[in-house]
Design brief:
heterodimer, A: alpha+beta, Immunoglobulin-like, five-stranded antiparallel β-sheet, B: alpha+beta, Glutaredoxin, seven-stranded mixed β-sheet, 9 strands, 16% strand
């Protein structure tokens, strides 16, 4: 018969054939689709497929189609069988202009499982299909299939189809447990990226994100790490981070699916994590601490002092080294103390020196005197510096001071490095502390060592007085903030005692400045008496309760446990009175009407974990999150297994987006 | 106001560079200056103080046809331009690529598509505006508020089928975002995965 006659007979047969006859193919421009099924189904689980034969250079798509395009849609209905979800072979990246699609260039089989219901003699299938085939232009296609398949004890396949199914089954992602590559961490990186670290052996695999709404399809940047590779994916702009997301990794022959890689907190570093990397991170963190508003003015004092004194190169070097020694010694001492307490089993965290009222009061007095000196109320250089002894002692003390005032300003680097330090072996932890110290000391040391750099600093002149007076104001602000901390620590009387002391000191300065030995003596006695009385009065008191503040409740591990078990959403604000970032976030984001309304509406258990006085339960909870400092914002979506950590600088839209898609990446 | 405060705060307290390559919801919308089919120039500043919707268009794309053939897009244009929302439909196809139109052709197509509620088609043959916004697909939708902040970027709705029959049962993201934003409420889904044909840069 001629082909055209064959076709006509086939068409007639298709149209007039009795019920139960099969239509197991569909076609459109550039693509033919065939249902690959056995001649007889087995009574157990069968794997069937839709086999797409695609014209050269045209492609169809993976489940995450990438920057454009669309995955095929399959609607499979049967009364007499249970149908599993579509199994997607691992894709390849298909660049289209500057965009990237994920799909298959050439033929592909999408598989699905079918299990006949008990005692079913036949299984009828009704299928609707939709696909998109693209080269550069895209053509959608639609099709329907119906068929009825007999059921026997064993499946019977044609040899050809059996091979086809097996070939494509090999490309279906397997369980993560079988994977030679395991996810080590998934962290946010700079410039709106997400970094997936894999550890394992062999050539670097390809990694495909499952969630196209979260991550761009473009090939991620790949870097070697000690234990494997790190892949840097670009995030889709404006999408907030879910608690976890999934990836398919492939070596080109097989593939594995990492279903729920949790995002956010770094896992506790392994002992084999390269020490130099931690050291570098700590060093960078230390350098950044120089820019913290509470450190910068202190360093400026010293630099002005150096410029003013017109000191020679050797003096400057000595000053720089002494300052560095002061910083390093203090970091070593704090690190040693932290380690000693850790070894002693005491749960304690960074910022603990601000949990003691006398230390806070001491800092208040110090900053107050510095601020007054800056304002020109008395001569700092002639009195306090002389009091501190010679200039060498001064540099050392500046170094010590810098460490103390830097501690509460934990930048992102500091948080991560200290979190690591809390769980690392003692020697490594100490290295991190010294790294932070070295970083903090480096810019100052550099300026004092290099005459060229120092020469680039502006010449001394009247402008310095103006600038010095200007610098007084951040110091006054610091005093206010520390007074408030004192109030939190010592109760209502704290700030009253503190400010009375400040008033007395200001009065004594005025009195002493009037001239006359007698008046000066009276001023000294009065000042000392005020200091002694105030310090003595600052006995520890019960912490001020912050529960009952609107929708916020105090930290209660049982309550949180219970709510999570009940599928209630939980938001925990790990905060402390001495953490300025925490206060700003609280004011601008967490305590707003908008957030309160959202939390109420979604029945969120809002917990404020106040770490102002180191509460061991909260220290514990923080270390479980891999953190050792505040702020930390932990969000548990309803039923979520792990916390999603929000950035340290909160914005309202981040809160809004927690509720935008409660299913997260389960798409 | 809050955004300004938080922006300041973020720049003071955090050091990472906040560099965004493409339009990001919550951030100021990228500037543009393009000529429409009638020869008039449109810039972002022209729409200061007004709501603006951007829609990427390619007459030969099946997904564009899905929304125009069903009258879905035109109804949206009509509904929102009646509420004083501006609507710009943009062609970023390069010359010689699918969907590229000369100004007179664009005028004819706009008429054939019954686009009488949006301005004459905006022609971006060098792709500068498309790239600035990171427009990936046709249709790709953006909403800009009167302060010039992008409040939505992504798909028109949640069903990436090319079949117009699914439109009545789809969730229209643009409607949801516009209605919420114009009522002064936060947009629940400010960013979605755009679907459709690639923009033919």
């Amino acid at each position: 018969m001629r082909p055209i006659t064959q076709l006509i007979i086939f068409l007639l047969f298709s149209i007039f054939s009795p019920l139960g006859s099969a239509q197991t193919s569909a076609s459109g421009d550039h693509v033919k689709v065939r249902l690959v099924a056995p001649e007889q189904l087995g009574s157990g689980k069968n794997t069937l497929a839709f086999y797409f034969e695609v014209d050269p250079h045209w492609h169809v798509y993976w489940r995450n189609a990438g920057d454009s395009g669309a995955a095929p849609k399959f609607n499979i209905r049967s009364d007499s069988a249970n149908i599993g979800g579509i199994q997607w072979p691992f894709p390849t990246r298909l660049p289209v202009e500057h965009l990237t699609n994920l799909g298959y260039e050439g033929n592909v089989a999408y598989l699905f499982e079918l299990t006949p219901k008990t005692n079913a003699k036949t299984v009828e299938l009704n299928i609707d299909l939709e696909w998109l085939v693209c080269k550069i232009d895209c053509i959608p296609g639609f099709g329907s299939m119906t068929t009825e398949l007999p059921v026997g004890s064993e499946a019977s396949w044609s040899a050809e189809d059996k091979t086809l199914i097996e070939n494509w089954q090999a490309r279906i992602p397997q369980a993560a447990a079988n994977s030679p590559w395991q996810a080590e961490s998934l962290l946010t990186g700079a410039d709106n990226t997400l970094q997936l670290s894999l550890h394992g052996n062999g050539e670097a695999p390809n990694v495909f994100p499952l969630d196209g709404a979260l991550l761009a399809a473009a090939s991620p940047e790949r870097n070697s790490t000690d234990s494997g590779y790190r892949y840097t994916f670009e995030r889709q702009p404006g999408v907030d981070l879910p608690a976890h997301t999934g990836f398919v990794i492939s070596d080109g022959e097989q593939a594995w699916q990492l279903d729920r890689v949790p995002l956010g907190s770094a896992p506790p570093p392994k002992a084999n994590q390269p020490l130099w990397l931690l050291l570098l991170a700590a060093f960078v963190g230390g350098v950044i601490l120089n820019l913290m508003p509470c450190v910068f003015p202190v360093l400026s004092i010293k630099l002005f002092g150096l410029i003013n004194s017109g000191a020679g190169a050797s003096t400057r070097t000595r000053e720089g080294l002494l300052y560095s020694a002061g910083v390093l010694a203090t970091f070593a001492a704090l690190g040693g103390l932290l380690l000693a307490l850790r070894a002693g089993g005491a749960a304690i965290g960074w910022g603990f020196q601000l949990q003691s009222a006398p230390v806070v009061l001491g800092l208040i007095v110090l900053f107050w005197l510095m601020a007054l000196a800056f304002s020109g109320v008395f001569e700092f250089g002639h009195r306090l510096m002389q009091m501190a002894g010679n200039a060498s002692g001064g540099s050392f003390v500046t170094g010590v001071l810098a460490v103390f005032v830097a501690a509460p300003c934990t930048g992102p680097f500091m948080g991560a490095a200290l979190g690591a330090a809390a769980v690392l072996p003692a020697a490594s932890a100490m290295v991190i502390f010294l790294g932070l110290g070295a970083g903090l000391a480096a810019p100052f040391l550099l300026l004092t060592l290099s005459p060229a750099l120092l020469a680039r600093l502006p010449r001394p002149g009247p402008w310095m007085d103006t600038l010095r007076q200007l610098f007084a104001f951040p110091l006054y602000a610091t005093v206010i903030w520390l007074l408030w901390v004192l109030g939190q620590l010592a109760g209502d009387s704290g700030w009253l005692l503190g400010s009375s002391l400040l008033l007395t000191l200001a009065f004594c300065l005025w009195l002493g400045g009037k001239g006359g030995k007698l008046w000066r003596l009276v001023a000294w006695v009065l000042a000392l008496a005020a200091l002694v009385v105030t310090f003595a009065r600052l006995a520890p008191s019960e912490p001020a309760s912050i529960t009952g503040e609107g929708i916020w409740q105090g930290y209660n591990a049982d309550l949180i446990q219970q709510a999570r078990a009940d599928g209630q959403a939980v938001f925990i604000d790990y905060t402390a009175a001495w953490c300025i970032t925490c206060q700003v976030n609280k004011k601008l984001v967490l305590n707003t009407e908008h957030t309160t309304e959202l939390f109420k509406q979604h029945n969120v258990l809002a917990i404020r974990a106040d770490w102002t006085r180191h509460d061991p339960a909260i220290t514990d909870a923080l270390s479980q999150l891999g953190r050792n400092s505040v702020p930390v914002y932990a969000w548990y979506a309803p039923g979520a297994e792990s916390a999603q950590l929000l950035p340290q600088i909160l914005q309202e839209r981040m809160i809004t987006q927690l509720f935008a898609n409660p299913q997260g990446d389960d798409r | 106001m809050n955004i300004i405060k938080q922006g300041l705060l973020a720049s003071v307290l955090s050091l990472p560079a906040l560099a965004f390559a493409v339009a990001t919801p919550g951030e100021p919308a990228p500037d543009f200056s393009e000529t429409d089919a009638a020869g008039d120039t449109h810039t972002l500043a022209d729409y200061e103080g007004e709501w603006l919707v951007l829609e990427w268009f390619n007459k030969d794309c099946p997904y564009v046809r899905k929304h125009y053939g069903s009258d879905n897009m035109q109804s949206l244009q009509e509904k929102y331009t009646a509420q004083d929302v501006n609507w710009l439909t943009i062609i970023s196809s390069a010359e010689g690529k699918q969907g590229y139109l000369k100004p007179d052709e664009a005028m004819a197509e706009a008429k054939a598509h019954n686009m009488h509620n949006s301005a004459p088609l905006l022609l971006d043959p060098d792709g500068s505006m498309g790239r600035a916004y990171g427009a990936k697909t046709t249709p790709h939708m953006y909403i800009i508020n009167p302060e010039g902040t992008l409040v939505y970027a992504g798909a028109i709705d949640d069903n990436d089928s090319a079949n117009p029959a699914v439109i009545p049962d789809s969730k229209n993201y643009v409607v949801a975002a516009l209605d919420a934003a114009m009522a002064g409420e936060p947009v629940e889904e400010p960013s979605t995965r755009a679907y459709g044909c690639s923009v033919k840069y």
